[in-house]
Amino acid sequence: MKAQYRRTILKERDSLSPEFVRQAEEKIATNFFNSEFSAVPDGKSVMLYAAFRNEVGTSELIEKLSSKGIKVVLPKTSGTVITPYEYLGPCSLKIDSFGISVPDENVCPAAVISDIHTVIVPGVVFDRSGNRIGFGKGCYDRFLPRLPHAVKIGLCYDFQIVPSVPVSDTDIPMDFLLTEKGFIFCR
Predict the structure, then answer these.
(1) Nearest CA-CA partner of 65 in 95, 82, 89
(2) Strands in 64-167 per DSSP E
(3) Which residues in the chain land under pLDDT 70?
(4) How far apart are CA 164 and CA 43, in angstroms?
């Protein structure tokens, strides 16, 4: 079931026009900054991701958070292990073997896990209970237990939300979903 959901939604996501992707990113950034989630306590950080293959874009969120003096953290994945690094601007990124922008560990300091206040999580499929399907490697499900204190927000287009996602004991649900149509409270 997970594989079928993944194939169907990725096919739809891959067919999105650049204009739709750009407009959705703008709406999502507006929704985020019009919410209480944009009020990040001093000394705390927001972890995002660099968009890949028509994922919801995060560059506007990253740049606006940075311009407000909020520390931004981005993941670098090695195998199935996520290591978070502080974002120091576009020049602090490099392209990995998959074509994804990732922090350059020679430039970016490792992030302090306990300082991550909010983590914005990518996914392929979500349901309104906050369950998600990613690319199938379990990277975020292994990483998120290290952030029990952080607010977990699944970032997706509205069409990526289905009635129910199959879950296992190791799946970590989101607290909220954020789409171009607004926030959904999950738990």
Answers:
(1) 89
(2) 71-78, 81-86, 93-95, 101-103, 116-121, 125-127, 132-133, 151-155, 161-162
(3) none
(4) 37
CA 49/CA 57 separation, integer angstroms: 9
Provide the angle, in degrees to the nearest 10, between the axes of the packed helices 18-33 and 59-67: 30
Residue in 81, 88, 84 with CA at minimum distance from that of residue 142: 81
Token digits of residue 157 = 């287009």
pLDDT at 153: 98
DSSP classification of residue 181? T
Is there a contact between 37 and 28 (Cβ–Cβ < 8 Å)? no
| DSSP β-ladder status, 116-121 and 81-86 | unpaired
Asked if 17 and 181 touch (Cβ cutoff 8 Å), the reply is no
